[in-house]
Amino acid sequence: MSTKTKNNKAQRVENVAAWRFYLTIALLAALVCMLVGRLLVLQVLDTDRGHEFLQGQGDARTLRTEHIPAYRGVISDRNGEPLAVSTPVSSIWINPKQLINEKSRWAELAAALDMPVSEVEKKILANQQRGFLYLRRHMSPVEAEKITALKITGVGKQQEYKRYYPAAEVASHLVGFTNIDDQGQEGMELAYNQWLEGESGSRRVLKDLHGNIFREVEQGELARSGSDLSLSIDMRLQYLAYRELKAAMGKVGAKSGSVVLLDIKTGEVLAMVNQPSFNPNNRRFLKPANLRNRAVTDMFEPGSTVKPLTVIAALESGQYHPGTLIDTNPGHIKVGKKTLVDPVNYGVIDVTKILTKSSQVGISKLALDLDEQSVWSVFHRFGLGVDSGSGFPGESAGLLPNRPKWLPIERANFAFGYGLTVTPLQLAQAYSVIANKGVFHPVSLLRKEEVDEGAQVISEKISQQVIDMLKTVALSGGTATGAQVGSYTVAGKTGTVHKVGKYGYADDRYTAIFAGMAPASDPRLVAVVMIDEPDLESYHGGESAAPVFSKVVGESLRILDITPDKISPSQIVTHVNSRDDVAKTKGRKSA
Fold this sequence. Notes:
Layout: H1 3-45, H2 47-62, E1 63-68, E2 75-76, E3 82-94, H3 96-99, H4 106-113, H5 117-126, E4 133-139, H6 141-148, E5 155-164, H7 172-175, E6 177-178, E7 184-186, H8 187-191, H9 193-197, E8 201-207, E9 213-219, E10 229-230, H10 235-252, E11 256-263, E12 269-275, H11 294-297, H12 307-317, E13 325-327, E14 332-335, E15 338-341, E16 348-350, H13 351-357, H14 360-369, H15 374-381, H16 408-415, H17 424-435, E17 439-440, E18 455-456, H18 460-471, E19 491-501, E20 504-518, E21 525-532, H19 541-559, H20 569-590
Parallel strand pairs: 2-10
Antiparallel strand pairs: 1-8, 2-3, 3-4, 3-5, 6-7, 8-9, 11-12, 11-21, 13-16, 14-15, 17-18, 19-20, 20-21
Helix pairs in contact: 1-2, 4-5, 10-19, 12-15, 12-18, 13-18, 14-16
């Protein structure tokens, strides 16, 4: 090839290269001009729209609206002792979309949380399309601060509140508990959730790349704390009832049990405990069956504890008075195809002794002689068959059957507490009517600021007659000598009820009950003790339930500083010794 041809080709290559070079330069210059032009438009020519656009883009990356949790109201007893309080905690959250790119730091994060690396990895990989996920809830703020101090992209913390229950299992059935999101799940926490929970607030903040807040932009809605709740119970009496019931459960080997203590003047529940119980602060090994507030939800046949109500129907008829004689010979009575039997033949006894000895024959004769609806009417007026109005979640109304035509055996069984069901709370409410001169007060689980007048459901005269009759039950010869309380007189009634089994009433399973009041001369407290399936060595109400009543009510009366209405033997000795000391002193002075 000639030299001239080679030079021409080289010239063409240089021309093409120069053209491409200048074209590239021109394009780059044009892009720069476009960028500068866009900046001019946004910053100078169209300031409002430009600022709005840039601000929006910046806000989308850093500005967040943060939820401010509300402080849940405090639950306390009638004297202000806290039963449920909220404590500040922190929860660690992650953004799996961001954290998926920080694999080298997963082990560090897991170690700080004391979690297996495999668990952290599993959570991130399973939720990598999500922007938010809780990794650990309710940590102490100090521990959470250590996690966020690692400055791992996609890891942050959120302030929350956790419920703490100072009384633990002693008041757990009544107070209840909240879930991890601080919503009431059981007990008064559930019943008054809206009252307690308050309203959450919000604020707008700027967050950095790691999700940490570095500036608060504006305060939104202020969080409004929940309202406090004052319960009717007195924790001094609650602890006492819990201790005595738990001790009795272990002693008689029972399946479960309940104690309810009422102030008869107001209808307030001063103590309500159940066994078995649970600790709301640690529910890791919680058994669902232990959650029930058995005093309010569990129904049982009351047995002989409702015999005083049958006697009230007899007294109201005008045909009977406490001294009216009833022939119970020969110690049994046949009603229909069934024979009802007393433990021994009591012979001719008065109405009072029917309660003293808990005579099935005597009470059956009374019931069969009365109008068919009269006994049912008294039971209904005393609150049986309807819920107590306490407002407790899941409260049972019991069962009070009402038939247009009663068979004789149905009337007899009904009169001594079979064929109907009650709760411990209902039975306590019924006895409070007797104790309170025939006045019915609605039951309250909240502290009352004012006492309502109540409704007069039986006459004061009949109420006093029944109290006097029930005093004999706890005296020598009665069925509940174990219910006696040192310096106070007691009036009450035992119940020993066969439980229903697979083939009818079982001969080896019982419910033992004692319901009573003290001091009997001027009643202030009513208590019901229910022991479910005590061992066969102490299955009677007078053996397993009455002693619990004695200890709980006796100590409660002393705590409440209620004046004794009788002098115990020890007090008589003290009184005599004091009198002798005074006499000796006077003698020395005279000498």
